[in-house]
Amino acid sequence: MVKRVLVAGGTGRVGRIVVQRLHDAGAQVRVLSRGRHRADSASAVQYVTGDVTTGAGLAEALDGVDAVVACVDPMDHLVPAALAAGTPHLVYISIVGIEKVPFSYYQRKLADEKLIAESGVPWTVLRTTQFHDFVGAGLRMLAKSPVMPLPAGWSFQPVDAREVGAALAELALGEPAGRVPDMGGPEVLSVGELAGLYLAAVGKHRLRVPLPVPGRVGRAFRSGAHLAPDRAVGAVPFARYLDETGGRF
Ligand SMILES: NC(=O)c1ccc[n+]([C@@H]2O[C@H](COP(=O)([O-])OP(=O)(O)OC[C@H]3O[C@@H](n4cnc5c(N)ncnc54)[C@H](OP(=O)(O)O)[C@@H]3O)[C@@H](O)[C@H]2O)c1
């Protein structure tokens, strides 16, 4: 039977990969985002407008779907809307270590995970490390100044959003699995190493200075709470991602 899947946030970095993978696997795909979408009867993917922060358009978007992949947050409107729509399988992307890093966005995602797990909706949650594009965008911003400040003692384990999108699509086509094993990129690199790779890829020279980040969030990142070295399952290293994109992302 053809699965009907809603991808909330399906025009975003990871969402659009999920959409492509589901479509390639023969699913009937609907995409929800806030943008206005032109009706295109030739497109195999249906685009609908809605907002997960207000609940607008969610009932229509969820109508008749077997699964929802949430590549967006928060979940406080989407979860009740899914319950009302006949409890489709809800697949949610979360972030490694959110219970250990007292960063407000992470705390909100932790609350979303709890809401989903206690809602009665059949669910699957995949936590991943930061995407290559996200780390790259951060480095690009820091490299704007001739002196590049780098959070002292921090490392990242960037993962390719294409691999994450493929994993989410596969989970949406499978049975609800609860919290599945975390997904991390293939290597943990210090911000100094990441900055070196980025600067070489874009052909820039910058004076790199370590910036001590005070407070509990700074400490949590220094402790590596957001890393999953024992789940280094991603295949695409940051250097290859930079090669492929030439640092333009
Ligand atoms: N980026 C990372 O490194 C990373 C790592 C691990 C987990 N994640 C998680 O992955 C998810 C997606 O991240 P991403 O980087 O792919 O995000 P993104 O590129 O910013 O895409 C967000 C998507 O959600 C839509 N959207 C945003 N606000 C919305 C709203 N209020 N109602 C409906 N749609 C909305 C956006 O389209 P419109 O703007 O048109 O609405 C877009 O399609 C997030 O939950 C994030 O926490 C990200």
UniProtKB/TrEMBL annotation:
Residues 9-135 form the NAD(P)-binding domain. InterPro entries: Ergot_Alk_Oxidoreductase (IPR051604), NAD(P)-bd_dom (IPR016040), NAD(P)-bd_dom_sf (IPR036291). Gene3D superfamilies: NAD(P)-binding Rossmann-like Domain (3.40.50.720). It comes from the Bacteria. Pfam families: NAD_binding_10. PANTHER family: PRESTALK A DIFFERENTIATION PROTEIN A, PTHR43162. This is NAD(P)H-binding protein. It comes from [Mycobacterium] crassicus.
